[in-house]
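(Structure overview)
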Amino acid sequence: MLKNIKISLVSVLLVLTGLWIVANMPFSNMLSVWSVRDLCVQYSGVIGIGVMSVAMVLTLRPVWLEPLLGGLDKSYRLHKWLGIVGLVAVIIHWIASKGPHWLSNLGVIEGRHHRASHSVANSLSVIQGFFQGLHSPAKWIGEWAFYGLVLLITLALIKRFSYKIFKKTHLLIAVIYLVLVFHAVILFNFSLWTQPLGMVMALLLISGSVSAVLVLTGQVGKRRKVEGIIETQHYFPKMKVLETEIRIKEGWRGHKSGQFAFVSFDKKEGEHPFTIASSWNVNNPLIMFITKGLGDYTNFLPERLSIEDKVIVEGPYGCFTFDDTAQRQIWIGGGIGITPFIARMKQLAKHPNTQAIDLFHSTTEMEPEVLKKLTADATAAHVKLHVIIDKRDGRLTGEKLRTIVPDWKSASIWFCGPKGFGAELRKDLLKKGLLSKNFHQELFSMR
């Protein structure tokens, strides 16, 4: 599904570029420094605000897009790429706007000659005249919004900052986006609004603005949120793993094995994404999450959570749901990435199918009680379990997998775990003949 993300990103860029070219045809044969500058400013502005508008729509977590992109995790990856492209575009926009003026002041190029004309001014429509009167404030506010956007996107890309700080600062991008929409609307070539480029830009700006307002008013995922109460907890200190079982109140839509949800244990901390580690039973509405201490938030969950604490669960999301027609599946769970496979095994124990399944669990450490539970789940689901403990067995590699499962080429591969580990296995297996479409990976990273 990474292919779908790339296709989506390229499609957005090609559509905007094509419409911009059509709108500016024919290009003048006598291009000056300043006319080229104007084209660069216009094009970079169209690309920048265009991709940011699409990225803003994706912040609403549109479930209808999940089948196309391969899940909300892929949607967030596209959102990130769009943000990076948008950042590059606005930097180019800023340089193109300022650069020639700097060069002119230094005497490197000739200054621009402005030809004011009363006849032109008088021919402007009331609306066009109103827009032109706002050019100066639009330029000023756009420049400062640019500085804020560069700062906030840079902070979002630096993983050293905590998820909590990321969430709070990232929210401000919606405010900056609305400021940039004002900048774009006022400075966009007025004559282009009635052309295909203008119509598409209007649609993008309206959609993005509505999305930004919904984000700022806390409406994202509101219809998919339900209350719950922590019913049981079990902590495994050596592995720093916490099992939390939550009884969900009325309103949960049910979920498939392998999907995830956003869980808010603390209003001040906000929501965090966790894979659901249990199958769904409408007659016993319990959902289990298995979390591992990997950061400043999950490290302290065992101390902060108590039985009967109230929580908010939003979801379900994701397409890592094991849906295919392969006669054999190979599951690979790296560390805490074992959670979607636990949910699937619990589902298969109730509703078995005819697929042959091998589960590889690669981990640095395994407590006896955890191994006992995992083995029981695998036995009940008729899944062949292979536990790979790094210190004892060495790392799981493509070669080791192929040795253990000789007919691996006929299988679909389902991977959930560290990004680098997954990329390494995927590259190795594809090199040996696995079809790209048969490698499914959960990109469980929301930033």
User: Anything to note?
Assistant: The two ends are 18 Å apart (CA to CA). The chain has a mean pLDDT of 90. The longest strand covers residues 225-236. The chain has 15 helices and eleven strands.
